[in-house]
Amino acid sequence: MGLLKCGLRGCTTTAERKKGKYVYYRCTGFKGACGNVYILQEKLAALLREVIKPVQITPDVAADIATAIRQSDGDAAARHAAALQQVENVEELSSARLTVGRSQSDLPSQMKASGV
Ligand SMILES: [Zn+2]
């Protein structure tokens, strides 16, 4: 724990359940009473959502991370083969692009502008 600190003196915060259902977070006052107030869990969650919104990752990046994690779980030989396959795919792709790039010089200028 200890991820959440009071903004006034930097004390840790603690969670308390009130009336059996409402969860509040409050400053422990370890460094002296700061006068900070309780905050309802739902309200805190909403504030934290706003904080983490800008650091959300795109689905593409999430997929890349998932792939990397899966690969790190697999055995070394399988990882090596997968990495090798990726390199080969990139090599094939770039040689294909080079071919497209060269043949474009034969195209009329209007078609070149389409940016393949
Ligand atoms: Zn405090």
Tell me, rounded to a whole number, the average pLDDT.
79
First and last CA, distance: 53 Å
Cofactors and ligands: zinc ion
Strand order of the largest sheet: 1-2-3
Structural class: alpha+beta
Query: Helical content, roughly?
Result: 40-55%
Report the count of strand segments. 3
Shape: elongated
The value of Rg in angstroms is: 27 Å
The biggest beta sheet reads:
3 strands, antiparallel
Query: What's the oligomerization state?
Result: single chain
Count of discrete domains:
2
Uncertain segments of ≥5 residues (pLDDT<50)?
Answer: none
The SSE order reads EEEHHHH
Output the number of helix runs. 4
How much of the residues is beta strand, in percent?
A: 5-15%
Question: If you had to describe this structure to a student in words, what would you say it looks like?
Answer:
There is one protein chain. This protein is an alpha+beta fold. The protein folds into two domains: 13-55, no CATH class; 59-99, no CATH class. Helices cover 51% and strands 12% of the residues. The protein has a three-stranded antiparallel beta sheet. It is elongated. 2% of the residues are buried. Bound molecules: zinc ion. Zinc ion (ZN) binds at residues 6, 8-9, 11, 27, 34, 36.
What tags apply to this protein structure?
116 residues; alpha+beta; 3-stranded antiparallel sheet; 4 helices; 51% helix; elongated; binds zinc ion
